[in-house]
Amino acid sequence: MSVATTGAQGRIGYEGQDADNPDLQPDKRPSGDNPQEASWLRRARANHLGLKTAPLGIGLLALVVFLYYRSLGLGDSVIQLSSPLQWDTKLWPQTVQHLTIAFWSTVLVVLVAIPLGIALTRPPLRRFGPAIVAVANSGQALPAYGLLIIFLSIMGQGLNTVVVALVVYAILPVLRNTMVGLDGVDRSVIEAGRGMGMTRRQVLTRIELPLAVPVILAGVRVAMILNIGMATLAFLIGGGGLGVTISTGLKLQQDPVLIIGASIVAIVALTFDWIGALAETYLRPKGV
Amino acid sequence: MARPPDRSARTALPTRDRTRDRRMSENADTTLEQNESTTGGAPSPGDRLRKIRLEEVEKRYPGTKQPAVASLTLDVHEGEILVLVGPSGCGKSTTLRLINRMIEPTGGRIFLDDEDVTKANPDKLRRRIGYVIQQIGLFPHQTIAQNIATVPKMLGWDKNRITGRIDELLSVVGLDPDTYRGRYPKELSGGQAQRVGVARALGADPEIMLMDEPFGAIDPITRDRLQNEFLRVQEDLRKTIVFVTHDIDEAIKMGDRIAILGEQSVIRQVDTPERILAFPVDDFVRDFIGEGSTLKGLHFETVDEHVKLEPYPTMHVGDTPTDAAARASEANTDWILLLDEQDHPIRWVAVGDLERGEAVTAESGSEVAAKVSLGATLFEALEQMLISEAAVSPVVRDDGSFYGVVRLTHLNRAIRRARLEAREHYESLEATS
Amino acid sequence: MDGIISWIDYISGRPDEILETTWDHAKITLIVVVSATVFSVLLGLFVQSRPTLRALSLSLAGIFLTIPSLALFAIFIPIVGIGNEPAIYALFLYAILPILRNTVTGLDSVPSAVVESAKGMGMNTTRQLLQIRIPLAWPVIMAGVRISSLITVGIAAIAVLVGGDGLGTYIQGGLTRLGLPNSLESVWTGTVFTVLLGLVLDLVLATFQRFTTTKGQRL
Question: Is any Cβ of chain C less than 8 angstroms from the Cβ of A254?
Answer without folding.
Answer: no
